[in-house]
């Protein structure tokens, strides 16, 4: 599966469960760990876990085998390693603490387009 398709699949799964402030960061050439990071906020530990589980379910339905996941038990944050795409789902205070967007600020960043946005592509 192409990276862009996998990013869209992850974003769609997050949006399906009302993920907030979804951001995609292109880190190609900046790290050898992954090519894209998708970051989303959840409102509670249950919300974070539900969104992470939904992403895992949707990518598995498309034949993608996740390399690993972390943090699903606690619900404060979850990291899903899909290989070329890493998905971070966090509660707002945790996201503010780690501030991954600022950490990768030199990388290309884009906000997910929501269904109601005028510029839907």
Biggest sheet descriptor:
6 strands, mixed
Write the CATH architecture name. 2-Layer Sandwich
Show unreliable segments: 114-121
Q: Pairing-aware structural class of the strands and helices?
A: alpha+beta
Could you give the order of strands across the largest sheet? 3-4-5-2-1-6
CATH topology: Beta Polymerase, domain 2
Oligomer classification? single chain
> How far apart are the termini?
20 Å
- Determine the mean pLDDT: 88
- The CATH class name reads Alpha Beta
Q: What is the helix/strand order?
A: HEEHEEEHHE
* Total individual domains: 1
Percentage of residues in helical conformation = 25-40%
Question: Number of helical segments?
Answer: 4
| Beta-strand percentage range | 25-35%
Cα radius of gyration in angstroms: 13 Å
Annotated CATH homologous superfamily: Beta Polymerase, domain 2
**C-alpha geometry:** globular
Main location: cytoplasm
Pfam families: RsfS
Subcellular location: Cytoplasm
GO biological process, one term: negative regulation of translation
Which descriptors apply to this entry?
single chain; Beta Polymerase, domain 2; ribosomal large subunit binding; translation regulation; 121 residues; Ribosomal silencing factor RsfS; alpha+beta; cytoplasm; Iojap/RsfS/C7orf30
